């Protein structure tokens, strides 16, 4: 199964993660050998993509079966144009428990022969290729000295970020992601007056074969990781409510919330970084959602001290929202595929203070009887279960609630939470089934296990 090396992390980060997954509570429950085995599986599976592509269907615009049919037709056209084989079949499955999710199996790892002509791309670009993307020119770091458009090349991902831009070769740590055809000369990529745009290498033999969704049904099919779709359903928005999404970019969850409430009510999306605001608005416009209001604002300061504030936007008076989603900025250590991270341990551990500040604001902005959902795409205890334990101690008004759907594992041991509390949490833990995710298991069964690493907690404010 493992065609890549384990995720490349700084030694201090690996040691930190190991201490998390081999904490005292886990060791007492499963023993050292099993705990170490799970940790090693985590490091392996993080560098590989999930075995399927998850698409959230815009069921507020069209029925699921209609979207499934249209998506199948579009992908057939795409595959026929790049394949001499006229009999092209596209398998698209519905999720058995989530009514707006379509699943497409990923074929890989495939036996692809490496070539002598090598293009090196950044780690982020390499990860995108593993999930079906072509190589866009800005992602290319090195290429052969005389590369011309039309040349067939092997594409490698730079695992440590050490390749010099414009190099003609690279001997450092790298991982092979497939073969493609150059769409530009080397000079157009590195020697032009302006940065090159567009596709630099069109992938023809990727190590993992999955559809490219570039321009495919943009209003009806939205690429989103399965746990991220689950978050919207767990929040449970209803028509007519006022809902806050505190850290909204790029807007996938914001739009999902608006769609689930039938675009009736108000979804307020806050985002601190100005250049990310347009992306949220574009997604809302593309999905024809009018209930979304977007503001560039730091959510840690979103609570107003003025009880008679008349302005529409932030900051807001306390208890202004029926439901709050805090999809918090985090260390992102659950993202897949991720073949390498250059982050220091200090950077990894810097998120918890920010998450707590945001949580303070979230609780104050939530109405009594309202629902707060907290989520991250990371695997540490400090940002997940330990934050829940802190929240329950800090805010006596909060109680944990059951989640629907609950398709992930329960919370992880190590934060001093009770078995009942852990069962109410939802942790997507791909390492728990990494050795069972072969193609023998039905895709609908694999889909719930072979995900990114993710965490969800649901609270009620009494």
Automatic annotation (TrEMBL):
CDD domains: AdoMet_MTases, PUA_NSun6-like. GO terms for biological process: RNA methylation. PROSITE patterns: NOL1_NOP2_SUN, PUA, SAM_MT_RSMB_NOP. One of its GO terms (molecular function) is RNA methyltransferase activity. The keyword Methyltransferase applies. Belongs to the class I-like SAM-binding methyltransferase superfamily. RsmB/NOP family. This is NOP2/Sun RNA methyltransferase 6. It comes from Sparus aurata. The gene is NSUN6.
